[in-house]
Amino acid sequence: MQEDYGRQESILGEDAKEKKRTEIQRQIRNFNTQKDDYAKELKRLEMRHLKKVQDEVMKIVADLGKELGYEMILELQNSAVLYRADSIDITDNVIKRYDNVYKQGK
């Protein structure tokens, strides 16, 4: 459309030029909107499938950790804990200490 407009621009009247420019801009906006919609849909599908694989891998890692008696399994790239034995969880101790420290401060 833009090439056709470029070839016809010199022979078109102002109204026809404006109409063509408006139509080209509308088509560009529609194209960009569709492109963005497809990109979002692709990202959503990618995330859904990635989540499924991650869940399956996490189950395997947890089962392996229990089976081999590991206390902890770390993911190297992001230093994320992939598995930890319940015996090393200190969450309750942290909560108790927090409550003791901040209740006294009131």
Describe the structure using short key phrases.
single chain, mainly alpha, 106 residues, elongated
Question: Secondary-structure blueprint of this entry?
Answer:
Layout: H1 2-8, H2 14-68, E1 72-75, E2 80-84, H3 91-104
Antiparallel strand pairs: 1-2
Structural commentary:
With 106 residues, this protein is mainly alpha-helical. It has a domain at 1-51. The chain has 3 helices and 2 strands, in the order H-H-E-E-H. The protein has helices at 2-8, 14-68, 91-104, and strands at residues 72-75, 80-84. It has a two-stranded antiparallel ribbon with strand order 1-2. The radius of gyration is 30 Å and the shape is elongated. The termini are far apart.
Residue share in helix: over 70%
- State Rg: 30 Å
Gross morphology: elongated
Q: Describe the largest sheet.
A: 2 strands, antiparallel
Structural class: mainly alpha
Mean pLDDT, to the nearest integer, reads 85
Number of DSSP helical runs: 3
Q: What is the gist of this entry?
A:
The chain is mostly helical and 106 residues long.
